[in-house]
Amino acid sequence: MKYTRISALTAIGVAATLSLTACGGDDSGTDSSAKGSAASSSTSGSSSSGSGSKTEGGSEAGDTKAGSGADSKAEAGTNGTTNTGAKVTFCKTADLAIDARDAAPDANTGRIDITMINRGSATCSATGFAGVDIKDEDHTSSPIERGQAQPRVTTLKPGDAAVFNLAYDIDTSGDSLASPTNILVTPPNETHSVSLRWPAGAGQIKGAYTDVQVYPTHTAK
After folding, report:
1. Going by C-beta distance under 8 Å and a sequence separation of 6 or more, which residues neighbour residue 125?
2. Has residue 195 got a pLDDT over 90?
């Protein structure tokens, strides 16, 4: 009888132990499954965030490129307009009526104004310095140096006039060695010259012809 009771108690203990082990195994499985699910969810969220970041970066790069292209096109258009405007041809000597006159502002300052009128049928440019030589009564000629001035845009429509001047100091001593008779004028960017008479009544040149200076053209308006 004792043997039977001990066996029965042992069997009950083993059953209880197996029952507890089974319960512990279920809890462990549940925790592992939950952790795996959370990890999967976290990985998925991180991947989505990274994908969003890439999309935004790509959009910004695309916008920058588009803007740059628009600016380049605008600049190209501006340059094209400028280049087109610069295609006006230079005035030809044959299309210009040129004369010279004394324009001295006072008794000590000599100035000769030389006017060029566009007698052609098209608009032309007289921008820059004219070439000038002064011819003396001894039949020699001297080139005139440029004054310190920046050329101004001088575009002439048919009938418009451009002016440039020669400047020098007037000799009041009566001992001037310069005896000018003619002014040889070559319009800006031209090779053909015209000979003009030195204006009657213009003051004597003080010093040499190298002391005379020519200034750039400007419109007469």
Report:
1. 88, 89, 90, 91, 153, 154, 155, 156, 188, 189
2. yes
Q: Is 185 helix (H, G, I), strand (E, B) or coil?
A: strand
**Total domains in the fold of the chain:** 2
Kindly list the distances between the CA atom of residue 196 and the CA atoms of 138, 170, 203, 209, in Å, as whole numbers in the listed order.
17, 20, 17, 17
- Does the global pTM surpass 0.90? no
Q: Are residues 56 and 144 in the same domain?
A: no
What's the rounded mean pLDDT across residues 127-140? 97
Do 66 and 167 reside in the same domain of the chain? Answer: no
3-state secondary structure of 163: strand
Q: Which segments of the chain does DSSP mark as H helices, in order? A: 2-85
Two tokens, residue 64: 């920058």
CA dist., res. 8 & res. 5, Å (int): 5
Same domain, 207 and 101: yes
Domain span at 76: 1-87
Specify the amino acid at residue 3: Y
